[in-house]
Specification:
The chain is built from four helices and no strands. Helix 3 packs across helix 4. It is rod-shaped and about 80 Å long. The longest helix has 20 residues. The protein has one domain. About 55% of the residues lie in helices and about 0% in strands. It is mainly alpha-helical.
């Protein structure tokens, strides 16, 4: 005499649902990670950084660079917020 579990396992709908769940978990494990990791902080002299590097450095520290800021303003803000070198 078949049990409700036996009937559920023989159902096409249950197999399709289970397969969909497995597929969704696999897709999440592949694409749910950082597929395109963030670029690291720029290094070196800020005077030689590009505009995008200056903006990225400020944004990483929640200093909210304005799109209207000039390169000189961005550079001034970066220098003002950089840590003093250890002696």
């Amino acid at each position: 005499m078949p049990t409700p579990l036996d009937k559920a396992l023989n159902s096409k709908k249950a197999v399709i649902v289970f397969g969909s769940i497995v597929t969704a978990v696999a897709a999440w494990s592949i694409w749910g990670q950082d597929m395109f990791p963030k670029e690291g902080d720029p290094t070196g002299d800020p005077e030689k950084w590009t505009r995008e590097e200056l903006r990225r450095w400020l944004a990483a520290r929640n200093l909210h660079p304005s799109p209207n800021d000039t390169d000189e303003q961005l550079l001034e803000r970066v220098k003002a917020n950089m840590r003093a070198p250890r002696v």
